[in-house]
Amino acid sequence: MRIDELFNADNYKIEDFDLKDDLIFFMNSEPEFYRKSYFPTMCTFKEYHDKGKTVNPLAFKKLVEKAYLEYSKEFPVEGLEKNISKEMCEEICTELHKIELENIKSGQYDIEK
Fold first, then answer.
1. Which of 3, 17, 45, 61 lies deepest, with the highest CB count within 10 Å?
2. CA atoms of 70 and 30, how far apart (whole Å)
3. CA distances from 110 to 20, 50, 78, 99, 104 (A)
4. Separation of alpha carbons 18 and 39, rounded Å
5. Other beta carbons within 10 Å of 100
């Protein structure tokens, strides 16, 4: 999201930005969403990973759909569909899985004792 979009969000179209990157940024930057939805999901992902279980990227589907709904309410952009497309959702889920798996492996979700 560009600074000018904060003041003139109605003037922007879906073609003006990368929805995948913008939605991932939103999930990580929106304090309430991050605290109530994103972080708990990633902690569960870490627990599964620590137990040696494989997590399918589509496990993040509900998280992405919820983020999309909140995002679209906060940023009403021309051309933004009511629901996220299946393809875009899968693409974002795959990207989140990749990013967060690296974060888990690097110890970003470890609790210091």
1. 45
2. 10
3. 27, 11, 41, 16, 8
4. 23
5. 21
